[in-house]
Amino acid sequence: MKLQVNGIGLSVAVALFMASCFEPPQFSPIPSIEFESVVFKDVANQSDPDSLIVTLRFKDGDGNLGLDPDNLADKSPPFNNRYYFIANDGSVITYKTKRTNPAYDTLPAFVKPYNCVNWESITIDNKVDTFYFQLNPNHYNIFVDFMVKNTNGSFTKFDWTKEFSYPQCGITFDGRFPILSKDLSQKAALDGKIRYGMPSTGFLILFSIKTLKLRITIQDRKLNKSNTVESPEFTLQQIKKSG
Questions:
Q1: 35 and 129 share one domain
Q2: Which domain does 21 fall in, by range?
């Protein structure tokens, strides 16, 4: 099964409050969010991705929300995508290190799901090496869990990283939204909406008539997490919007 899941997109509407002729609102520097809506946009062409589009309301007292995809600092720690590790001899840990050095034989094997969340094969000078890494959750600033309803009424988190075989695994719908304040030094209060789109050709294949709900959190540049909100229960057909 080949599913297209990349290409997350969003739009943001923001009200920026700064001291002028009125007193700006007092919000907590810890971001807060409210769930507003979720829509399933079903496209006619089966080869094109459908989209789940979530709209959130947010408030933040110091305006330090968002990451800049063009800023090197926002690709560096603490916002880097993954961490690699150095062995005791100073070399980068690879799968060969695991096989040949007893001190590292407890590292996970190159099997599902670890072949996608802990090992990366890179070709350097026509030679392939498989490097050990750990994903950095702080690379993202919006986190989305898909919850699937069971027959007994409880919900189970759908683990995208474990659902598919290599190299299709490692999927996540966590993502990044851009800087929301033009001048972060102003620390101005922000109040607005985030419209977050998640495209995939696999939603109908995977979930069909299943009952879902989404669980969502955002994070600011100081790594402060907001409250977590949940959508109401829904099926894709119930929230379907053709287009």
A1: no
A2: 9-71+139-242
